[in-house]
């Protein structure tokens, strides 16, 4: 896996050009991120939203987008529909959420007749650059499925593995996180973790290594595994942390962001294309990292 987001950016400079479609692009942080990405990456963009606001904000940022790069939309629902249609018609490779509610965008993406839904479950992947860890690490699912079933957890893994394979990581190492390494029916997530590990060994989850149940310390620190005398193939080398519920993923990611100085990129997987999806209040830098990540896998 890439050591940090800078290494990821460097890997994109010689990639084939791709087109980013932004739904509700009339937002300063979103436009700042899009323009920054266009300056350093082989990409084009189409901005969907309030045209006058997009032009006004762009001028404030010292930019003058071409008319052909902007498609006007009257409201959030229209922004979402237009953006999804552009993807559906083949004019874009990656969809991005701007100043719009997540539910509004995903409703358009999931529309049975006019959407870009895939064949499986849509899931969220947060990729973090964490000080003290030697490579980018992901947390999933911290944004879509509140209490995933075993089958949904299998889909979460398959989505993440497929995404990592597109990033060039052929055999990502996945830790099914729990509070303990012991399997107990009193903690159903430990039972799921064991079953997922067995599914992985049978080749049912794609090209990956899944271990579980694993506690967080063993997943990310080989010394902890040695102290606890827990045999682990992936300890200290985990690429992906599979969390038992959305609350765990959300809290873990935000703890790393606010207390450890981590940097994060976010995307939704399982649709026809990757969807750049971070909080509406996310910084321009966070949105830039998310664009880079999705362009790499788009």
Question: Helix and strand layout, with pairings?
Answer:
Blueprint: H1 5-12, E1 18-23, H2 28-40, E2 43-49, H3 51-60, E3 70-72, H4 76-88, E4 94-97, H5 102-110, E5 123-129, E6 137-140, H6 150-166, E7 173-177, H7 188-201, E8 209-214, H8 216-220, H9 222-227, E9 240-242, H10 246-259, E10 263-269, E11 275-276, H11 284-297
Parallel strand pairs: 1-2, 1-4, 2-3, 4-11, 6-9, 7-8, 7-9
Antiparallel strand pairs: 5-6, 5-10, 10-11
Helix pairs in contact: 1-11, 2-11, 4-5
Q: Brief description of this entry?
A:
The protein is 41% helix and 18% strand.
Description:
The chain is of the alpha/beta class. Helix content is 41%, strand content 18%. It has eleven helices and eleven strands. It has an eleven-stranded mixed β-sheet with strand order 3-2-1-4-11-10-5-6-9-7-8, sandwiched between helices. Helix 1 packs across helix 11 (284-297) and helix 4 (76-88) packs across helix 5. It starts with a helix and ends with a helix. The mean pLDDT is 93.
Instruction: Spell out the helices and strands N to C.
Output: HEHEHEHEHEEHEHEHHEHEEH
The beta-strand count equals 11
- The computed structural class is alpha/beta
The average pLDDT is 93
Taking the sheet with the most strands, its summary is: 11 strands, mixed
Determine the fraction of residues in helical runs and give it as a percent range.
40-55%
The oligomeric status of these chains comes to single chain
Shape: globular
Strand line-up across the major sheet: 3-2-1-4-11-10-5-6-9-7-8
Strand content range = 15-25%
The CA-CA distance between the termini, in Å, is 17 Å
Radius of gyration: 19 Å
Q: List low-pLDDT spans.
A: none
Q: Quickly count the helices.
A: 11
């Amino acid at each position: 896996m890439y050591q940090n987001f800078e290494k990821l950016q460097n890997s994109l400079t010689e990639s084939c050009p791709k087109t980013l479609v932004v739904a509700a692009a009339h937002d300063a942080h979103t436009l700042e991120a899009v323009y920054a990405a266009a300056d350093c990456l082989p990409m084009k963009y189409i901005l969907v939203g309030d045209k006058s606001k997009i032009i006004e904000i762009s001028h404030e940022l010292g930019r003058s987008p071409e008319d052909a790069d902007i498609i006007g939309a009257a409201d959030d629902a229209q922004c979402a529909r237009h953006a999804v249609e552009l993807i559906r018609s083949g004019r874009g490779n990656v969809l991005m959420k701007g100043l719009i509610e997540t539910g509004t965008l995903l409703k358009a993406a999931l529309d049975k007749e006019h959407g870009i839904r895939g064949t499986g479950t849509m899931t969220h992947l947060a990729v973090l650059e964490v000080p003290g860890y030697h490579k980018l690490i992901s947390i999933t699912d911290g944004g879509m499925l509140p209490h995933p079933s075993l089958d949904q957890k299998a889909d979460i893994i398959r989505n993440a593995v497929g995404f990592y394979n597109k990033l060039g990581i052929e055999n990502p190492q996945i830790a099914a996180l729990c509070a303990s390494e012991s399997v107990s029916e009193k903690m159903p997530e430990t039972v799921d973790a064991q079953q997922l590990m067995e599914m992985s060994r049978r080749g049912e989850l794609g090209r990956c290594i899944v271990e579980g149940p694993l506690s967080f310390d063993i997943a990310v620190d080989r010394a902890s595994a040695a102290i606890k005398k827990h045999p682990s193939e992936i300890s200290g080398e985990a690429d992906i942390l599979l969390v038992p519920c959305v609350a765990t993923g959300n809290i873990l990611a935000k703890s790393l962001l606010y207390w450890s100085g981590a940097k994060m990129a976010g995307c939704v997987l399982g649709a026809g294309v990757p969807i750049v999806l971070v909080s509406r209040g996310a910084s321009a830098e966070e949105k830039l990292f998310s664009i880079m990540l999705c362009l790499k896998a788009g």
